[in-house]
Amino acid sequence: MNIAIVMDGMVKLMSDRDWSAYAKSSYILGEKEYLRITKSSLTSDFDFCPKQYEYKRIHKLPEPSTDAMTKGTNVHDAIEKFYDNVTPILPELYRLMKNLRNDEALKMALSVIPEQEYHLGEESAIQQRIVWDLERLRVTGVANYLPVINELEVHAFTEEEIEFNGEVHKIPIHFAGSIDRGFATDEGTYALMELKTGKWVQTKDKNDEWQDSKFKVDSMRTEMAFYKKLLAYANHPYQDVTHWGWVYPSGVPNELELLNKYGYEQRGINKIVYESCMNKVGDKHAKAVDKLKTALLTAYLANDFPTKASAGKCAYCNFKSICPSWEGSDNPQEYLDAYQEEE
Question: Which of 182, 223, 249, 270, by CA, is between 20 and 30 Å from 59?
């Protein structure tokens, strides 16, 4: 894994993760300390619920680890190692795939991933991801097969100006993110691909046709727009991003209820999406990132992180016990005391 850090217009590459630079922001308005903005903090935490962002990112309240988090880490590590180690056998993999010897190619491809004992269904997700990539190898050949980005952590430091209550404020910002994969295109531009280990859920509409969730598609496009902007903030050599996409190799229908909460039939599927972002859709989600960024900075200036409550959404929040929308105390220390007692 490489890390690109940009400060004062210069890029510094590092060979290992620097998680200290990725620490949760302790930004205080008026102090010369960077407000860290990542894809997760902006497009997940803050967009999901500003109050949740406050608990996680400002008060730094801990959360229990989950099986989903462990599975995600294991699958990401395995795919990263695949790309690190596959180069010596690429010609043979290509030969096998061209001759339709798919099973042999898959077995050989999986052999370059270090052995590990899994318990959360990681094997099927890893295998599905490799199967898709071997098909890509069959179609496109060895050229441009390997990613130019393989779990690249990018940091960029800048200042943003924002007007609030008639006064212009300058806020120092540390943009950060870890990009799963980036590939060179035949046109000399770049395509970003995100790996997800959750489920891609479809529901049947009134015409009895399976439909992707519009919310899910929009949220993925906003995530990818953040990564595209991050590379631009960093003035990175791969910032000319013209395509993006995502892969969901963990679709397991039998782990879902047959009907969703609205009574529509649903299913989980394996899903891969690849699309151009040089269009109105890309522009729309670039603007969505800017809108979220402005809202976040405004929340800091106003010292106001309101709740955005709903019964379905809040069911997955670890901070519901202290949330004022659920008659909680809004006291972070109360949550912290309870969390420490349970450990």
Answer: 223
